[in-house]
Design brief:
7-stranded mixed β-sheet; about 625 residues; 5-stranded parallel β-sheet; elongated; about 40% helix; alpha/beta
Length: about 625
């Protein structure tokens, strides 16, 4: 049946029994596809019926559907003519793992980060009204994303709408990890409150027993059920904000979903449709452990077992080990995460020191400022966060942490190219935006052992400090170099001539490979591990610039505002004849794909760098 669906029109003609069959086929297709390509699995399995109902009640792309985060939009892509292309999802040159306006007119807005859909959809609706146009605008947001403050900023303004605006709250009691906080408790109360459910059932049964007019009375009461609900359901937070609340609705009952969505479509103001779904629905392993099946690499679809590849320990696990060792000796160390205890490596810390662990939900700005508050009162907080998500707390970094020069440590995970999640998740700006903030120290380790040393150094400082490290397997090479870390000082690894390679973090191992290949050309290059992007080791840079003819900087960050530009300026001040070659990422957003392939495409792999160095030397 799935092969017959090439657009919304094909879906609208199906009977409900056929829709149930189709839902099963879609789930099977998503499971088998992600088993090969990897991707977001559990979240997509949970919204199959919801997506089908949206496509049947509304008329996309004329009607605009904005998916929050967007990692649950695989069914949306399948139903909008991209079924076959789904096999390329998150692969180099293939479909994006998130909605993307340049990919399809069905994708109303580019997404990838959490809690943005209500604001974006509201803006689209306001433009619609100003232009005198007539179509529906729907924001689909998860209960995890609703913990983000921006979602409430959007709701606050949505309450003033005088025309139809629909928010679908996809409530599966999960973000990536299990949700935390007051909103989760509130929604759990709505899900489980028996008073309303029991009353509704009893009223309906009683009315149906009234002779002649019983069924008609039931119909009329259902139309007025929101009034009953407002008296019974505790809190009615959304109604109190001026937004009509419909639900909760079984998110796997297409008939019930369509009924609620059609009712929402008739209203001339903002309405929230509360839909209860099960993350991982229809696939046993994902239902039992949705956290493990949020983002997956390739796996056996029959068993759910991951197809293991030979990998060493990750930088995240190295950070976790180092943090536990330090926390054992210092009770002032506390850890903060924004709904990512597993991804950032804080799970072990949370289990050993639950009272010193704070998961604030999807609320990065709050994470940063609450850590500042802790630091101001004598604690030693570490905020473990992905590079691309730290951007969401930039003002708090500037105003609440660095302005007061508070000793907050930022463990910046997934720094550099992350690959398959694409533009919204590449960690390629953190050196630039962190280095421009006064009082901030920025470090990057060359290998696993140095990460542990840097974390210890960071906790010893009396000022803000960030340590950036990449996704994936930690580099274990260069272990013969074990010098102490001195704030603001680099590390001379190999002393040579003609060419100096001044590399930061993940690029040190690349520079090591380049150095070995340069030997074939008879060049014994100097290799310096920068260690610090801020403050830079000006003494080392000046000395190296004076002694060499080519100064090469290497970093996995955009060139503009990065370490290389600053180091190059210092080198030229020391030696006006020095030639500077900056190896960095371009001033652009970088699409999804395999990291090794991206490195070659962007010319930051060892062969590309070697060619650039040879060209520079030949030009001289």
């Amino acid at each position: 049946m799935l092969e017959r669906i090439n657009g919304p029109g094909d879906l609208k003609s199906l009977r409900y029994k056929e829709l149930e069959t189709l839902a099963g086929e879609i789930r099977e297709y998503i499971i088998n596809t992600t088993a090969v390509t990897g991707g977001h699995l559990a979240s997509n399995l949970g919204v199959v019926e919801l997506t089908m109902a949206l496509f049947r009640v509304f008329d996309p792309p004329r009607d605009r559907i904005v998916w929050d985060v967007g990692h649950q939009a695989y069914t949306h892509k399948i139903l909008s003519g991209r079924r076959d292309a789904l096999k390329t999802i998150r692969q180099t040159g293939g479909l994006s793992g998130f909605p993307k306006t340049t990919e399809s007119p069905f994708d109303a807005f580019d997404t990838g980060h959490s809690s943005t859909s209500i604001s974006a959809a509201l803006g689209i609706a306001q433009a619609r009204d100003l232009k005198g146009e007539d179509y529906s605008v729907i924001s689909v947001i998860g209960d995890g994303a609703m913990t983000g403050g921006m979602a409430f900023e959007g709701l606050n303004n949505a309450s003033r709408m005088k025309k139809n605006f629909i928010v679908v709250l996809n409530d599966n009691n999960m973000s990536i990890s299990k949700n935390v906080g007051g909103l989760s408790n509130y929604l759990n109360g709505i899900r489980t409150y028996k008073g309303y459910t029991t009353l509704k059932k009893n009223v309906e049964t009683g009315l149906r027993n009234v002779p002649v007019v019983g069924d008609k009375l039931v119909t009329e009461v259902k139309r007025a059920k929101d009034s009953i609900k407002q008296m019974i359901v505790p809190g009615m937070m959304f109604e109190d904000m001026g937004i009509t609340y419909l639900g909760p609705v079984d998110g796997h009952d297409i008939k019930a979903l369509e009924r609620a969505l059609r009712q929402a479509k008739k209203l001339d103001h903002a309405v929230i449709v509360h839909v209860i779904t099960k993350k991982g629905k229809g696939y046993g392993p994902a239902e039992e452990n949705p956290e493990n099946f949020h983002g997956v690499d390739s796996f056996n679809p029959e068993t759910g077992e991951r197809i293991k590849t030979s990998r060493g320990r990750s930088y995240s696990s190295c950070f976790s080990e180092a943090l536990l060792e330090l926390a054992d000796d210092d009770s002032r160390i506390v850890a903060v995460t924004a709904a990512m205890p597993d991804g950032t490596g804080l799970k072990a810390f949370s289990e050993k020191y639950p009272e010193r662990f704070f998961d604030v939900g999807i609320a990065e700005a709050h994470a940063v400022t609450s850590a500042a508050g802790m630091a101001s009162n004598g604690l030693k907080p570490v905020v473990a966060i992905y590079s691309s998500f730290l951007q969401r707390g930039f003002d708090q970094l500037v105003h609440d942490v660095c302005l007061q020069n508070l000793p907050v440590v930022f463990a910046v995970d997934r720094a550099g190219l992350v690959g398959s999640d694409g533009e919204t998740h590449q960690g390629i700006f953190d050196i630039s935006f962190l280095s421009e903030i006064p009082n901030m120290t920025v470090m990057a380790p060359k290998n696993a052992a140095e990460l542990k040393k840097m974390l210890k150094t960071a906790f010893s400082l009396s000022s803000p400090c960030a340590i950036r490290y990449p996704r994936g397997t930690a580099y274990e090479g260069l272990g013969e170099f074990d010098s102490d870390i001195v704030p603001g000082k680099s590390e001379l690894l190999y002393k040579g001539n003609r060419v100096v390679l001044f590399a930061l973090g993940s690029m040190v191992s690349t520079a090591e490979h380049v150095r070995e290949k340069l030997k074939i050309d008879g060049i014994n290059a100097t290799l310096i591990n920068a260690r610090f992007a801020k403050p830079l080791d000006e003494e080392m840079i000046r000395t190296a610039a004076f002694e060499h003819e080519l100064f090469v900087t290497l970093e996995e960050n955009v060139l503009r505002g990065g370490m290389g530009i600053m180091a190059g300026c210092i080198a030229r001040e020391a030696n006006e004849h020095i030639r500077v070659l900056n190896i960095a990422l371009p001033d652009s957003y970088i699409e999804h794909g395999d990291v090794d392939t991206l490195r070659k495409m962007l010319s930051i792999d060892s062969e590309s760098i070697l060619e650039k160095i040879r060209n520079c030397l030949n030009e001289g």
